[in-house]
Prior knowledge:
Distance between the termini: 43 Å
Number of helices: 9
Shape: globular
Largest sheet: 2 strands, antiparallel
Radius of gyration: 17 Å
Number of strands: 2
Transmembrane segments: 6-25, 32-53, 73-91, 98-116, 128-146, 153-173, 179-200
Keywords: Membrane, Transmembrane, Transmembrane helix
Structural class: mainly alpha
Strand order of the largest sheet: 1-2
Amino acid sequence: MTAQMTTIGILVSSLGAGAWLVALLSDKKGQLSHAISIIADFLIFLWASKLALNVHHLIREPVAVLSRPADSAAFYTASLLTGIILVFRIWRDRSDPGILLFLLRLWFLSSFLFEFTEFVIGSHPANLINLFLYGGLSLFSVRKALPPDRLMVMSLLLWAAGGLSTLLIQPVLTMFGFLISPWFFLIFTVMAASVIKLLWKEGTLWT
């Protein structure tokens, strides 16, 4: 239970610190509150998904289910729901300039902070591999020489290629401590890149 709480604490701290650092580095402090709201949505969806996917066990063993950490299925569900809510808000309000690029940078930087903290605590080789992956992605995502839509799509493609390439070195893929299936990398990249291109074409997305 202590290890579970430690991982949750590292996850929340990494997301919060990542949001603050991205706002500081990109001079987009006005988007910080929106980003924190989206992080809160994700964490709520993650917790709710864990309960929904274990509803049968929840009735019989509520304490065990509540104390059990969320699994990959809950992570997939929370990511999907958060993405749907985010895209709907952008499409409806048309008042979130650059929020997707902000979130992309937050995601990479938070992942780097998470892997760094996990590596310092546990010194696991997998954390070191992910540390280099997300460190490189964080540096690439802050480039300003590319148009925002191209930068985001290229960052996603590099993430997918880099993540899948790690399978040549280690047997599993992880993100924020969750085991991730290779199909998630592919489907997420295709869906996210398609949404970015669509919103950019419609003039909804800009920086």
